[in-house]
Amino acid sequence: MSHVTKKSRPIVKALAYLATGLAIAGLVGCGGGGLTQSQKSGFLTSAEYNRLEEVPIDQPGVKLYRYISPDFDRSQIKGVMIDPVILYQTALKGSGQKGLTDETIYQTRMIIDKELKERASRRFNVVDKPAPGIGRLSVALTGAVVEGDSFKPWNAVPISAVLFAAQKAAGVDSKTPSFVVEAKMRDSVSGKVWGQAVYVMSGETFRMESSSPEAFQKMAVTWVTTAVRVSAGMAGK
After folding, report:
1. Bridge-based pairing state of the strands 86-87 and 134-147
2. What pTM does this model have?
3. pLDDT digits (tens, 9 = 90+) for 143-162
4. Helix then strand then coil, % of the chain, to nearest 5
5. CA distances from 222 to 30, 51, 205 (A)
6. What distance in Å separates the CA atoms of residue 155 and residue 147, rounded to the nearest whole number?
7. Nearest Cα to 105, choosing from 52, 64, 159?
8. Residue 182 and residue 198 in contact, taking contact as beta carbons nearer than 8 Å
9. Among 36, 44, 158, 166, which residue has the fewest nearby CB atoms (within 10 Å)?
């Protein structure tokens, strides 16, 4: 039975830090979209994708998109509910040391959930029941194949597939494999969307990395830096 190793633990903590940073900044992300029903993450409709606006950011290979409802007032938030994180990845069989078992995926999700709640509690009252003034945060970590320069993924794919594809510069054409952190904040009572955000990492830096925990951790440093800037109001404001 496989578990999250000491080497991989900082990675999922970094991802949790990133997702929480986006939430604290009042952003929410959405994800999904695909050619078949099984490829859709279910976070956004096509119309919802169209209302996302790119936020200027000076991180190479990184793009940040968001939507904030004009009726949303962050100062009115009394607390937040946090849904279990969605990790778009199934077990991989016969992949040697790079294989991902169901147990590994489960442990990874548990660590991210724990980190999300701990970090969110530093800024918000974390609750487990809907009520007026309570936001509901949903976060997904996925892979996507992005068409051209805009965030209109034709296929949502498992994280491992994106990491493996990133190693191969050939055969990608205009489609770029990207790692995506998606989040959305809703009114816990009415379900009305308060905000949505999508954080996308791709480009040559991403392509040059491998799917090893060590390389993944190196990339995560960039995500953490971005999350800190966003949560501090320096980006995505």
Report:
1. parallel
2. 0.67
3. 665 555 555 544 555 555 55
4. 35, 25, 40
5. 21, 26, 11
6. 9
7. 159
8. yes
9. 36
